[in-house]
Amino acid sequence: MTEQAITLVIGGARSGKSSFAERLAEDSGKKLYYIATAEAHDAEMAARIADHQKRREDRWITIQEPLDLARVVSETAATDRVILVDCLTLWLSNIMCRDGDVEAYCEDLLAALKNIKGPVIFVANEVGLGIVPENKMARDFRDDAGRLNQAVARLAHDVHFMAAGLSLCMKRDGNPQQ
Amino acid sequence: MTEQAITLVIGGARSGKSSFAERLAEDSGKKLYYIATAEAHDAEMAARIADHQKRREDRWITIQEPLDLARVVSETAATDRVILVDCLTLWLSNIMCRDGDVEAYCEDLLAALKNIKGPVIFVANEVGLGIVPENKMARDFRDDAGRLNQAVARLAHDVHFMAAGLSLCMKRDGNPQQ
Amino acid sequence: MTEQAITLVIGGARSGKSSFAERLAEDSGKKLYYIATAEAHDAEMAARIADHQKRREDRWITIQEPLDLARVVSETAATDRVILVDCLTLWLSNIMCRDGDVEAYCEDLLAALKNIKGPVIFVANEVGLGIVPENKMARDFRDDAGRLNQAVARLAHDVHFMAAGLSLCMKRDGNPQQ
Fold it and tell me: Fewer CB within 10 Å: C terminus or N terminus of chain A?
């Protein structure tokens, strides 16, 4: 992992994205920062967050940030640290739930990543491989999620697609697999 | 790209299928023909079509054909042209919306492809990787879409799976990746 | 295929999982056992089962087992046989429909696989790559299906991801692809 490397780990629900991303971060030997975008709106979500935290134990410093990713990622990044953002798709959902300006938030994040001072690993859901959703908001959401994944993948040095806890490398050291 | 090569680009919504397919076509150095199966039933669809057209600018000759793909692809194909069909999944949806005979339409297309006079690139959605849809029509649709993708992939020289704007090659020069 | 090899074939609906798994089994030269977890609750399901059986013809011995996979797989396994279990995701659905203890069933199956006496090929659906389902039961189901796929993939020697009838190898001879 080079000093300013950006990594994107995409996949479905329960595909092992977070565990894989945590191993990548831990293998770097750097100080571990976890930026959690999830908010515990209900018991189901709270259980999911607790499950993730339990796995990370005390080796990680956890920062909760549902919205202002651009600022928090910029301020936290450093050459002796690795940041894991889990996950971009919930962040997008947080913005939409508050009627925020998705495009502006995404532009801010991408601008921040171009000047980042240390490595960042993003976890994101791929949500576009099912039947077209019947409601318009879900269709907009999957369009926005797909566009954001593409934009981060363009900046990323490494992109991994996960299924069943295993990864397929789609981009390595800045080179798309062909 | 050989003279009669068939290429299939599959992936989810907003996975970068169309852009990737357009680059493949443009790299061929041949005259560019775009067969659009989309119909602008509403403002959302019209915006999506306009977005795609804007990217292609004037370098492409665009033919709108919602149904009779077999004939239009056959008549347009030529060794100095490359045809991009975008997309097979909307075409299937167009047939179903008109209560057309899906199997007959698919057989006609596959028969046409076996005697095609020039290269064709197909874009198609993979729609079977979500939860089983609750309504029967959506289940039938994803079965038909999956079957069609398999049938075109069998004839194809190259098959690419897209996510986050990146491709994984599943078949190259007629050889499945193993 | 080594004596106790476990293989997992995942993919979406109509992605060619069953056909691919059948070819793997037939290429082994061993006696062919098919463990069908599907139950014909309605005409749609009955047609799907009949379609699968027709393809396998008489070369296979078919065992119908909707629930007790651990026992049936253990009792059937042998070095001169290959077992194809089609599929894990329907099995999970069968357990949930009966309010069974998903965790206990999965633990029993995984324990059985650790002491298995012959090769087993599992087919499973990847169902987590669409939009988050609106109903809680569907969300639980895709979580359970994802966890089960990960657990079986950990034990598996080979894991294949299918789309359009083609496979991408995610793990080979016990080694994850990187």
Answer: C
CATH for B6-132+152-162 is 3.40.50.300
Which residues does chain B have within 8 Å of residue A131's beta carbon, measured at their own beta carbons?
A: 127, 130, 133, 138, 141-142
* Domain residue spans of chain A: 6-132+152-162
* DSSP per position, B3-53: TT-EEEEEE-TTSSHHHHHHHHHHHTTSEEEEEE-----SHHHHHHHHHHH
Residue B3 pLDDT grade (very low, low, confident, very high; cuts 50, 70, 90): low
DSSP one-letter string for C117-131: SS-EEEEEE---SSS
B79-109: pLDDT as tens digits: 999 999 999 999 999 999 999 999 999 999 9
Please tell me the predicted confidence (pLDDT) of residue C55: 74
Instruction: Flag if B170 and C166 touch (Cβ within 8 Å).
Output: yes
Question: Which residues of A are less than 8 Å from B127 in CB distance?
Answer: 129-132
- Among all residues of chain C, which has the CA nearest to that of A134? C131
> pTM (2 decimals)?
0.94
Task: Name the maximum alpha-carbon separation found in chain B.
Answer: 46
Amino acid C3: pLDDT: 67
